[in-house]
Specification:
The chain is mostly helical and about 110 residues long. The chain has 4 helices and no strands.
């Protein structure tokens, strides 16, 4: 029973951190949808950090916890560029963070 109590304390810490970050509301009306949602998220954390060896169940609980507490990315970036395209862009565009002498072509070695 002590391991479940420890998992409950960890879950309370996680819920407290989510409340402090503004992800979850701090004060909720008892028996409201927000209260039920908070209780469900707490139980997911208890399952994830509680005793047991069922790795799949623990990972599913963590996945659900993250899915409903972490927002989706604001935009998706696509970095499909070939090495040749990157090199061409890097050498054609002047860089303002380099001194002018760095942009001059070097003389070929004799």
């Amino acid at each position: 029973m002590a391991l479940w109590d420890t998992a409950g304390k960890i879950a309370d810490t996680i819920i407290g951190a989510l409340e402090a970050d503004g992800v979850l509301p701090e004060g909720v009306i008892p028996d409201s949808d927000d209260a039920v949602a908070k209780a469900c998220l707490r139980e997911l954390a208890v399952i994830a950090f509680g005793p047991g060896k069922d790795q799949r169940t623990k990972l599913m609980a963590l996945h659900a916890l993250l899915k409903y507490t972490k927002g989706p990315p604001a935009c998706r970036l696509d970095y499909t560029v070939t090495a040749e395209e990157w090199l061409r862009k890097a050498t054609q565009e002047p860089r303002s963070d380099l001194p002018p002498s760095a942009l001059q072509e070097s003389a070929p070695a004799k």
